Amino acid sequence: MVDTCLFRGAEACILRNDRLAVVVLKIGGKIASIRKDDREYLYQGRSEEFIPPQFEGDFGKFDLSGFDDMVPTINAGFIQDGVFAGVHMADHGEVWALGWNLEAGSDAIRADVDGVRLPYHFSKELKLHDNVLSVEYRLCNKSEFAFPCLWAAHMLINAGEDTRIIPAECGGLVRSTLDMSSRLKGFGALHSWPETRDRNGCAYHLDRLAPRDAGVCEKYYFEGPLRNGEIGIMNPGMTIRFDPKTIPYLGIWLNSKGYKDQYNIGIEPSTAPLDSPENARQWGYPALLEGHGEIRWRLEIEINPVDPVAAGAEK
Predict the structure, then answer these.
(1) CA 108, CA 295: separation in Å to the nearest integer?
(2) Which one of 34, 70, 240, 257 has the minimum C-beta count within 10 Å?
């Protein structure tokens, strides 16, 4: 069932069944809330009213909550070459700050938006199947010319000190992209996962938040394309699934009150790593949307009645 509503003062649609309730805003197409019974699974901002965005504004000054889509970049910058050389790519992309077309169907929410600085069309359709939210995405280049572009989820999880990140591919290496706390040794540094060592040689875990009083914030990507597109979140019980053939990279944001005094985990499946098409290209990863090109992908978020199989993992 789908209804229109106001969520924190913003126009929205709510999709629900007897298991879940999902709120999608007209502004940014943001998935603002995923609730099961009385539990909220997405991080909520501190403001009672939704903070409206400003196009090409500083993402950090607006509503840091819920699940936004990042297109065509995360980091701000300028396209360096080609037909679109000199075009500005806004902080965290464009679509989070735009008004979307929002359509309430009988059992689905359909949302779409057009690019401003670049000629793309981006759409998604959300449906519920029992305790699973399914999102079907489509990104199209409306021109004959290729341009640098990525999609990344910006999914902030309502997490605590006992939350654990459990990807299907455990172990291996991750690469630092954000190091506000100076523990990850700067952009591009490689680390073992799930346990690594900081600049002082002290061991710590990358599969969980630091204690609330730590005041640290960092982000990393799993190194290289994924072989398995599944990640579990223990407490709350969630499983996120995607096809690694179309979404081959995964970023993790860990904010233990090191940024904006927030305590949350960000899960960021992406078509390209390292937070911008330019960074991806410099490190040898493709991040182009070809002329008249189109990509489609699907993301599933399962809200588990109990935590994932790794519920027996160390707490």
Answers:
(1) 21
(2) 257
Q: What pLDDT sits at residue 305?
A: 60
For residue 307, pLDDT over 80 is answered with no
Question: Helix, strand, coil % (nearest 5) of the chain?
Answer: 5, 45, 50
**How many beta carbons lie within 10 A of that of residue 117, not counting itself?**
16
Structure tokens at 89: 């790519």
End-to-end alpha-carbon separation of the chain, Å? 38
- The Cα–Cα gap between 53 and 40 comes to 23
Whether the CB-CB separation of 75 and 279 falls below 8 Å is answered with yes
- Pick from 37, 46, 6, 39: which is nearest to 24 by CA? 6
pLDDT of 314 over the 70 cut: no
- pLDDT tens digits, one per residue of 15-66: 999 999 999 999 999 999 999 998 999 999 888 889 889 999 999 999 999 9
Closest CA to 147 of 69, 74, 83, 56: 83
> DSSP 3-state assignment of 8?
coil
- CA distance linking residue 261 with residue 276, whole number of Å: 25
Q: Looking at residues 140-147, what average pLDDT do you find?
A: 98
Residues 206-220 pLDDT 10s: 999 999 999 999 999
Give me the phi and psi of 126, to 5 degrees please.
-110, 130
Q: Which residues pair with 29 in a beta bridge?
A: none
Alpha-carbon distance of 187 to 51, in angstroms, equals 30
Q: 156 or 182, which is more confident?
A: 156
The tokens for 22 are 């999902």
Could you tell me the domains of the chain? 2-312 (2.70.98.10)
Q: Phi first, then psi: what are they for 286, rounded to 5°?
A: -70, 140
What percent of the chain is predicted at pLDDT more than 90? 88
